[in-house]
């Protein structure tokens, strides 16, 4: 997908009462946590359906590859659901990408939502279909979390999938923007790519590597110490990918090690991103902690790093006004 192509096809809105497909393409959830999260989703007004036992495990995976692929195909094909929601992240999506039939999603477009290891699925959807998907909370620990800390992400998720957020909408409202920081000022517009830094790196050199040309790159991660973050960013730089970008959004880098000093990761990221000479906005509430604001990967966005704003630059829903 070329970032300068016209807007991709719009997706159907999710309305109260619509059914959500639940899938586990990576690691399995704990059964009790899954049950509680499904109930919370129901309280939001959205019934759900599964195509197998998503809590089943094959070691660290939520079932063998064949069952996880079949589950995704069933969710893509299902005429009775408007959205596909990952139950959790973990690991395993990358094993499936070369066997997923993405044409099924093209025939029946719908939002696919998740983050962390689901970054790989988002990237593949962009490259194989050109459709927009949502980098945002999974079911367990995210949309199925009733805590006050998760309210901003739930509100934005509902606004995006229902079409309440249209062109020009602020994707990081002031209520969630207290820690935004301008690294490099400027304004840029482009397709949003990225997500989890480690997962993104694993896609380099594959047919599912995002198109970095004139794109806005989103980065977040968890459990990575500074030297590993350095290694991951070095790979992006030496592969010539960072130099192609129009702008960068930096989310949360959490659990970076007990011995990591305050500001060390921030300084490391600045070291790599400042020389790019493109707008860079850091401190976005996106990643492996609350709130984890959902964003439209593959969608056209605008970053105004000078004024610490991040805007939706296209309508996402098929029945929104042009």
TrEMBL record:
InterPro entries: Carboxypeptidase_A_C_sf, Class_I_gatase-like, LdcA_N, Peptidase_S66_N, Peptidase_S66C, S66_fam. Residues 189-303 form the LD-carboxypeptidase C-terminal domain. Its EC number is 3.4.16.-. This is Putative murein peptide carboxypeptidase. GO terms for molecular function: carboxypeptidase activity; serine-type peptidase activity. Belongs to the peptidase S66 family. GO terms for biological process: proteolysis. It is an enzyme of class 3 (hydrolase). Pfam families: Peptidase_S66, Peptidase_S66C. The active site is at residues 116, 220, 288. Residues 20-136 form the LD-carboxypeptidase N-terminal domain. Keywords: Carboxypeptidase, Hydrolase, Protease, Serine protease. It comes from the Bacteria. Coiled coil: none annotated.
């Amino acid at each position: 997908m070329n970032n300068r192509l016209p807007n991709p096809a719009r997706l159907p809105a999710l309305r109260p009462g619509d059914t959500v497909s639940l899938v586990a393409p990576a690691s399995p959830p704990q059964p009790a946590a899954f049950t509680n999260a499904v109930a919370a989703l129901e309280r939001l007004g959205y019934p759900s359906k599964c195509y197998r036992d998503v809590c089943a495990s094959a070691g660290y995976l939520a079932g063998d590859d064949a069952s996880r692929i079949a589950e995704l195909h069933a969710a893509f094909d299902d005429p009775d659901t408007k959205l596909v929601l990952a139950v959790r992240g973990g690991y395993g999506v990358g094993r499936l990408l070369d066997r997923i039939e993405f044409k099924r999603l093209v025939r029946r477009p719908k939002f696919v939502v998740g983050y962390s290891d689901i970054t790989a699925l988002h990237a593949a959807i962009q490259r194989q279909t050109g459709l927009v998907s949502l980098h945002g909370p999974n079911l367990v620990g995210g949309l199925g979390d009733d805590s006050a800390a998760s309210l901003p992400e739930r509100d934005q998720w509902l606004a995006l999938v229902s079409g309440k957020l249209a062109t020009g909408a602020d994707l990081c409202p002031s209520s969630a923007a207290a820690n935004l920081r301008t690294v490099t000022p400027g304004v840029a517009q482009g397709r949003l790519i990225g997500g989890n830094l480690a997962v993104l790196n694993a896609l380099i050199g594959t047919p599912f590597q995002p198109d970095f040309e004139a794109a806005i790159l989103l980065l977040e991660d968890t459990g990575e110490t500074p030297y590993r973050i350095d290694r991951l960013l070095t790979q992006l730089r030496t592969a010539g990918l960072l130099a192609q970008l129009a702008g960068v959004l930096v989310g949360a880098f959490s659990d970076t090690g007990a011995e990591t000093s305050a500001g060390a990761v921030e300084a490391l990221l600045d070291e790599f991103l400042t020389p790019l000479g493109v707008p860079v906005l850091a401190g976005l509430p996106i990643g492996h902690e609350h709130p984890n604001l959902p964003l439209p990967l593959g969608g056209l966005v605008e970053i105004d790093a000078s004024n610490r704003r991040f805007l939706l630059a296209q309508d996402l829903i098929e029945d929104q006004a042009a």
